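step 3/5: co-fold with DLL
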Amino acid sequence: MTERIIPYWKKEIETASREVLAEIQLMGLKRQIENALKTPFYSEKFRNLGLKSGDDIKSLDDLRDLPFTAKDDLRRAYPYGLLACPRHDLVRVHASSGTTGTPTVIYHTREDLDTAADTMARSIFAAGGTSDDTLQNMMTYGLFTGGLGFHYGAEKIGMTVIPTSSGNTIRQLKFMKDFQTTVIHATPSYLLYLNEMMENYGYKRSDFALRMAVTGAEPHSEELRQKIQKTLDIEVYNCYGMSELNGPGVAFECVFRQGMHLWEDRYIAEILDPKTMEPVEEGEVGELVVTILCRNAMPLIRYRTRDLTRFIPEPCPCGRTHRRIARFLGRTDDMLIINGVNVFPGQIEEVLLKMKGIGANYLIVVEKDGALDKLTVQTEVTADMFADDSRILNKLKENLRAELSALITINPQIEFKQPGSMMLSEGKAKRVDDRREKM
Ligand code: DLL
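step 4/5: write tokens
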């Protein structure tokens, strides 16, 4: 890679020694326990363990003795069971996306939001966003944190923020051209969609000043990133977050784009074997469990994210000491078990994106076929491939089937769809239709 200037938002904290980070974490943990004891939910849990104050925590190892918190706990504590401050100190409420039934809500004080904006600013800055940039934020504004969570971080840097929110692609493209937008924030699936629509609405790449995109909110493969980078001719940065952890910016890629720095002065991250809940070996894949250190209104101790990743043990060339986590492999509850074989949708996506002639959209359908499971991969093919003779299409189908079965050890059915015929997503993409439960 050519030499680049490494931008730091607050160099002292971003490059602090591991010892200093550990001290900050211990202080933060004590404070969070103190806070948690003020909530109906944790006070009962902790008192049963004999934990009466933050000072009962003597070292970071003590975290290992504390119970986990799960999404269901948040639902049970709805609406205010996790409140650790007076109600009048609250300034905003968010909710987690994609859940049905009782929502998972998160509340924030003024200080909480300021800290979250600072974390976000630090993240965008690390990726090279500056006050010279014009940002079009194509993530939904509202209860979802992707819109507002990113917005305030970008404003803090001094970017010119255009809060277009999601959808209305015609207007997105018009604004991108008229305001010469340089940075966009969107889900990877929407970036693909945007790219297709660009051509459909008669724009040329040279109409735009786009140089970079920040993407996140849904799992996506390195191949997908490469494809977006190539087709849009931009740099794409991965950003991880979740509503329960203040939204986007929990972990973010620096200019080297080799994994996401997880901000360890604001979060304590553990990677655990999801079956035993014991730590995996450094560098092995496991479930990310996070304790939030930077929120007064709503503490979360050892929150089970269900997201599967690994620490990247090697130091990053950018000099930041906050450990990196690798691109997510999926979620523990995303994993499909097909005839006893574990399959991650990301593995299938990886193969699809590598194959020439395959379009941007796909759907993985799993259904019962007698006693067995049947896997069908529906995917669009590119326009030139579709126009070709059927022998070529059949050959492509055979190749795809062979590639997939070599990787996932299951022989899937392949269904090719006309380009543009599959439902395109403007929000989080739905990539799996598991019909087995409904049968
Ligand atoms: O998706 C927050 C966010 C907004 C993150 C914008 C990044 C950018 P939730 O709706 O609560 O919050 O969904 C959180 O999305 O547990 C992951 O499974 C998934 N996810 C988020 N970022 C990534 C990513 C937002 N970069 C859930 N790669 C998480 C893979 C991601 N999965």
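step 5/5: annotate
The chain has two domains: 1-332, 336-434.
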